[in-house]
Amino acid sequence: LVKTLVWCDNEWGFANRMLDTAKVMFDAK
Question: Gene3D superfamilies of this UniProt entry (predicted)?
Fold first, then answer.
């Protein structure tokens, strides 16, 4: 259960990072 929660947290963090990067790239234009 703990491993699953950690994996989900890592996936959520990765998704947020991708969204932040996309936002920065969009604002840069």
Answer: Dihydrodipicolinate Reductase, domain 2, NAD(P)-binding Rossmann-like Domain
The encoded tokens of residue 19 equal 């969204």
pLDDT tens-digit profile of 13-28?
A: 888 888 899 999 999 8
**Spatial separation of the C-alpha atoms in residues 29 and 25, rounded to whole Å:** 7
Q: Which residues of 2-21 are buried (b: 16+ CB within 10 A; e: fewer)?
A: eeeeeeeeeeeeeeeeeeee
Both structure tokens of 4: 């699953």
Tokens encoding 20: 């932040």
